[in-house]
Each structure stands twice: as structure tokens, then as C-alpha cells.
From TrEMBL:
The gene is metA. Pathway: Amino-acid biosynthesis; L-methionine biosynthesis via de novo pathway; O-acetyl-L-homoserine from L-homoserine: step 1/1. The keyword Aminoacyl-tRNA synthetase does not apply. The record marks S192 as: Important for substrate specificity. NCBIfam families: metA. This is Homoserine O-acetyltransferase. HAMAP family: MetA_acyltransf (MF_00295). Its EC number is 2.3.1.31. Pfam families: HTS. Belongs to the MetA family. Its main location: cytoplasm. Substrate binds at K163, S192, R249. The keyword Nucleotide-binding does not apply. The active site is at C142, H235, E237.
Length: 313
């Protein structure tokens, strides 16, 4: 959360120059507060695991958040009970007339398919189009990030020679961005994917900017310059043991699966891995919620998507 200081305090300019969030007395007095309404479009087959991981990140902030769970109607989930879906999830037709402060679109294990060959692509494209007028800011994860940056900006994905699997070092390339406020210059993050986007394609697009990259893993964070769309091409929400579960699952299937890189201590799968990315992952979600949702969303949700709804930085 921001620190609140007098409008004319000399430290204001210094702190803002150091990328520290300062709220003046004037802004604080004119700021209305209400719970944030966030929509989670969960495309993962292991819905309960994914929703728990993401809600853990959303809950560890000072903000009140009203989370609504969304599933696709055009794809039948096989790894979760119908009772769980019927009880906790809704479909697009049920919420299409509502507006939301934020939306999160998860990854999905369909990345080797062309986007248009995914059985729920038409529905997902409809939801992403709808978000332009009904959602203040959208946070896309892994395949969801590839799908979003392709749909909104035409950035293609490319198949990798081998699966990118492990925990990798990353560098912040735009330290002035509030999204990475509080990050170390270098930090770690997990990846598990067979495709990638290219930094050069993003840099060539006038409406996009790079925020963090990795020498080994490539692009990690990008965003739209209007701060409506955020693209995270890894899995910051993963628990310490998630990559281990994926590795053991694939080995049990008889797949020739290499060890996740930089993950098991001493590359020994009998040793318990540690989460070396948890702090940055929490900051990423908290910064998005604070600077790009809470601080900028209209108090009146009916104004989301109108001319009175603007984001910045």
C-alpha cells in the first residue's frame, strides 16, 4: 500500500524518483474504497489446485477482493467434479452483462495446438473481446498470456525444440514500472511450457512493452502500454512442489522427461525442492492489484470500459 504524506513535502519528488509509491493528502481524501471485483477464468484441468494457488496470492494483500470463478461452457472439464463446478463456477452467459475491476486468465495444457484449433477458442476470444468494455485490467498467465497477446496484438507463439521446464533467473528490464516495484534486479520464476513468444516481436509493437526477461527462459513479463493487459509467460503462482508433481506425472506416463532445471537441490529428485520465487510472485500479484486495479479502477463499476475509465503507467 502507498505511504501518505503532505502534498508539498520535499521528499515526495525524491521518493517518486526512486519508484516508491506516494499518495498525497489530496488524493487520499478524495479516494473512495470498496471491495475489488475480480473474475478468474480458470482454464487449467486441475481447477481446484489452480484456484487455490491464485487465491493465495490474491488474499495476501491488504485489499478486499470479491473473486468470481468462470469456466468455459464449450469445454467439459474432466479432472474436477461437476458438483464443484456447479457450486462455485459460472459461465460467460451468466456474467456477460456485469463489469469487473480485474480479470485473470490462467494457462492451459493446449499450447502445441494452433490457437484456433483449441475447442473453446471461439468462446475464449469472445470473452477477451468482452473484457475490453467490461474489465478494467486483465492479467494473463502462461498459455493464457500467449493467447491474449496473440488475440489482442497479433504476437505469434513459436514451438520450442525441447520443453522449457524448471526455475530460471530473470532480469527486470523496466525498473521504473510499478508492476515490478520492490523486485530485486534479478529474480527467479518457474516455467513449464513447449512454446514461447519472442522479445523482438513485442518490442516491435508500439502498444506493448517488455518488463522482465530471462537469458534462458526468454520473455517473462510484458504489458500493454495502456495497462489494460498484462502477460506473464511463466507460473508465478506455482507451489514449491508443483513442478515435481508434473515431473513425476510425466515419468509415470513413460515420457522421456528431463529433470526440471535449477529446481531440485543438487539436481537430485529425491530431495525436497524449495520455492525460491514466492516473494517476487506475491509482489507481482500485489502490484498489479494495487497500482493497476485498485488505484485506477472507477469507484462506480458501471463506468468500467467507458471514457471515464483510464489506466496509466
Amino acid at each position: 500500500m502507498p505511504i501518505r504524506i503532505p502534498d508539498s513535502l520535499p521528499a515526495t519528488e525524491v521518493l517518486e524518483g526512486e519508484n516508491i509509491f506516494v499518495m498525497t493528502e489530496y488524493r487520499a481524501l478524495h479516494q473512495d474504497i470498496r471491495p475489488l471485483k475480480v473474475l478468474l477464468l480458470n482454464l487449467m484441468p486441475t481447477k481446484i489446485v489452480t484456484e487455490t494457488q491464485i487465491m493465495r496470492k490474491l488474499s495476501n494483500t491488504p485489499l478486499q477482493i470479491d473473486v468470481n470463478l468462470l469456466q468455459t461452457a464449450s469445454h467439459a472439464a474432466k479432472n474436477v467434479s461437476e458438483q464443484h463446478l456447479d457450486t462455485f463456477y459460472t459461465t460467460f452467459d451468466d456474467i456477460k452483462d456485469q463489469r469487473f475491476d480485474g480479470m485473470i486468465i490462467t494457462g492451459a495444457p493446449v499450447e502445441l495446438l494452433d490457437f484456433e484449433d483449441v475447442d473453446y477458442w471461439d468462446e475464449l476470444a469472445r470473452i477477451m473481446d468482452w473484457s475490453a468494455t467490461n474489465v478494467h485490467s486483465t492479467f494473463h498467465i502462461c498459455w493464457g498470456a500467449q493467447a491474449g497477446i496473440y488475440h489482442h496484438y497479433g504476437i505469434p507463439k513459436y514451438e520450442l525444440e525441447n520443453k522449457l521446464f524448471g526455475v530460471f533467473d530473470h532480469d527486470v528490464v523496466k525498473p521504473s514500472s510499478p508492476l515490478v516495484r520492490g523486485f530485486n534486479d534479478s529474480f527467479r520464476a518457474p516455467h513449464s511450457r513447449y512454446t514461447e513468444v519472442h522479445a523482438a516481436d513485442i518490442e516491435a509493437h508500439p502498444d506493448l512493452e517488455l518488463i522482465a526477461v530471462s537469458d534462458e527462459a526468454g520473455v517473462y513479463i510484458a504489458k500493454s502500454t495502456d495497462s489494460r493487459h498484462f502477460f506473464v509467460f511463466g507460473h508465478p503462482e506455482y507451489d514449491a512442489g508443483t513442478l515435481m508433481v508434473e515431473y513425476e506425472r510425466d515419468v509415470a506416463k513413460g515420457l522421456d522427461m528431463p529433470l526440471p532445471r535449477h529446481y531440485f537441490p543438487n539436481d537430485d529428485p529425491t530431495q525436497t525442492p524449495k520455492a525460491t520465487w514466492r516473494a517476487h510472485a506475491q509482489l507481482l500479484y500485489t502490484n498489479w492489484l494495487n497500482y493497476y486495479v485498485y488505484q485506477t479502477t472507477p469507484y462506480d463499476l458501471a463506468k468500467v470500459g467507458t471514457k471515464e475509465d483510464s489506466v496509466h503507467e
